Amino acid sequence: TLTYKNGFALPRRPSAGIGQEPLVSEQLSLPEISELSFEKPDLTYHLDDKTVYKDFIPAYVAFDKKVLRFFAYFLEDVWNSPDEDHRIRPVVIYYFLEDDSMCIWESAVMNSGISQGKRLKRHRVPKNDSGDYYHWKDFNLGIDLEVYGYKYHITHCDTFTKDFMEHEGIVLNEPEPMPEDPYIKHRQLSPPPRITSPTPNITHRFLTMDHKKIPKKLKSETAPSCIMELTKKDVDEYYSPKDFQLGQK
């Protein structure tokens, strides 16, 4: 298989191909061999791509401080109360796009008597028992969102959330009005409590009226004695029939 030329071992060129078939190089004529030098060989590597690609931006940078805000409410049953059988408690659901976490906040109602504020701290909320988590694609208007046994009914959202969802190809349902709590409505319609007059401030009167006296400038005047109607003379003095004459004023 080797031959020597000028003292160097070189592989011996086969005279025939596999199966004693003639070699391809021996089938070419001299003009065809000369034309091979003018042909442009195909490149085995890819041409230089001139496409300009955008720089990669991670999600925590692209969606930094971008929050979706949904308005919702949930029903709470009330037991052993003659005034109400359920409560409507409105909440706000915040969804953070940077890490797909969410939190739920309940606005405080004056004189409600229940603990309000943060209902759910910020974290990734599990969607089911299979290990899936809630994604912003799972949100829409007019649907129920079950979180840890509570069903939150989403009514509407803000303008930024609406534009973001529509830009991502999600068709939002029609917004719904937020229902009013019947007990709060009844309490607002009830008459206001009666406000009693303040008690006199004795200390203030002592400081402002000290050393002040009512002047005793009395003058003796003759008052009609008929006011008391003590005797018959007093009555006759003013109610005598002679005073009531026709045609006189």
UniProtKB/TrEMBL annotation:
Key word Repeat present: yes
Domain named DM10: residues: 64-169
Keyword entries, A-Z: Cell projection, Cytoplasm, Cytoskeleton, Repeat
UniProt cross-references to PROSITE patterns, sorted A to Z: DM10
GO cellular component: axoneme; mitotic spindle
InterPro entries: DM10_dom, EFHC1/EFHC2/EFHB
GO function term, MF aspect, one: alpha-tubulin binding
Domain of life: Eukaryota
Major localisation: cytoplasm
Entry's Gene Ontology BP terms: cilium-dependent cell motility; mitotic cytokinesis; mitotic spindle organization
Location of the protein in the cell: Cytoplasm, Cytoskeleton, Cilium axoneme
Protein name, as recorded: EF-hand domain (C-terminal) containing 1
Lineage: Eukaryota, Metazoa, Chordata, Craniata, Vertebrata
